[in-house]
Task: structure prediction
Amino acid sequence: MKVAVFDAHNDSLTEREDLNVLTQRLSDGHWDLIRFAEGGGRWQIAAIFTPPKFSGIEAFAYALHHIERALEWVEQNRDKVRLILSKRDLQYDGRIGILLSLEGASPLMGRVEVLRLFFRLGIRCLTLTWNHRNELADGVGVGEAAGGLTEAGKAVVAECEKLGIAVDVSHLSERSFWSLMQVARKPVFASHSNFRVVCDHPRNLTDEQAKAIAEKGGIVCLTFVPSFVGGDLTKFLNHFEHGVKLVGAKSLGLGSDFDGCKDPVLPEASSFPQLAKAIGEIGVSVADIRLLFHSNLIRYFRQTLPT
Ligand SMILES: [Zn+2]
Result:
C-alpha cells in the first residue's frame, strides 16, 4: 500500500560527499530522490548536522558550507525538488519538498541575529541540540549535569516562533526539554525519537514528555534507528501502538533518520509501503496510517511556517 510520506528527519545532505548523486538510484545508503519517490515520498526534512567537534565560528562556517551546497543542489534539480519555505510550499506539485533543518544549534553561536540569517537562507526547523551542550541548551549526552535552556536559548526559541521556524526537541536532555516547555508558546515536535517505556534509551521520550508535546499540538515522529527501537520492525510497531494509546494517532509522525544511522528497521526510503502494510496488518485504519505518514506533519507545519 503506497501512502504519501512526510519524513521528519534524514541526514543525506551532510552525509553525502557529492549531492549530485542523490538524483540517481544509489545502491549504498538509505535515501535518494528515486527511492524516496518510489516509497511515496513527497516531503523531507533534511538536516544540516554539525558534528560536535566544531563550535563557535567553525560550526557557523560548517553549517554555511552545507546550506550553500544544499541550496545549489535544489537549484540544479528544480524540476525534481523544491524548498519548503512557507505554508504554501507544502502543497504537493509533483516535486519532492525539502525542508531544511539545522540539527544542533551550535552554528548560531547563541545569537538571535544568526538565527535570522539562517532563516533568510531557508532554515525552517531547529533541533535545539545534538547530544552535547551548546549555547542554547544541553543534549541528552550531558547526563546528570544537564540544565535548562540558557537565556540565549529562550531568546532563540521566541525568535523561532516569531519567524516561523519549527522547534525540534529530539536530542534534548530532559531538563532542557521541560525548561523549553515552560517558555514555548507554540507547538514543538520531536523529529526522530521513540518511547522510553517501550525501549529504555535516553534518546527516547518519557510518556510525560510525549503527552506534553501532544497537549500543545505538537507531533512525536517515530524513528527507525535500531537502538532507539530496541528490536526489529515488529518492535517498531509496538512504539506506534504505545503512541496511539498514549497520545492518539493524531499526534504521531515518522522521522526515519535515513543516512544518519546503521541498519534502520525499515531498510531504505523505498520501503515505506512495507511499513504501511505491516501497520495495516495489526488492524490500523488507512485514515490513521495517513495521519502517521503525512497528515499530522502537514497540519503541524501549516501552523508553524510563515505564510
Ligand atoms: Zn539525530
